[in-house]
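Revision sheet: structure tokens.
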Amino acid sequence: MATLTGFQQDNTGAYIEKDPNAKLTYTVSWVDWLPTGQTVSTSSWTLETDSGDGSPLVNHATSATTTTASIIISGGSAGSIYKVYNTITTSGGSIERRYFRLRVKERSL
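Predicted:
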């Protein structure tokens, strides 16, 4: 089972909150899902969008190591929940995809 630092739980599953003005890095660890002896070879990201969304999520940059994949995200409309998909190809040629949800919410201290 993956460690979900900072995530909350609802009826649909895990999500993490993000302020619409925040520009943050999100990292997925693939350690628990990689076949023995294999590493992450490639990683791609897809940000869910809604038709007519005035402030969709923005992908600023991505990176990967042999066991993780990261993305820097900004934007999003307050009150919206988005799915962020990460697809990897392993050194052995396996393809795997996972997603997490971002709940965009105005945050204060």
